[in-house]
What does this fold into?
Amino acid sequence: MSVLPIDLGPITERRFSEAFAETATVPACRAASLIGVDEKTLAGLTADKVIRSVPRGKRRGYTERDLRAYLTDQHEAPCPSTSPKTAASGSSTSSLKVAGFMARRGKLRDAPPKRRKSASGVRSAKAALGLPRT
It folds into this structure.
């Protein structure tokens, strides 16, 4: 039984009838296979609202009607290389402070020197016993 009147050809029709024989929706991997794209492309088409998906628990499912509509309709999906450029969002760096090199250098120079450990990383025996250095 065809959901839409347009025939997709015998091989594709057989694949669709097998995929939707016992279920109303198919997972993304199966949907991508049915329409001949990879899962990333399908996710992009879904995000761009070219193909509709329905919630299926934590994942998304695709109906026969929506996949057939994609294959039979002429869609103008936005092309990333020709789409108008948008300014990059500054939200990822807006909370960061920019510290100048000279200001940081001055703070490090004014800070008290750090205690250094001996070469072996262990205090000497005299220091451990509290004896004065000679």
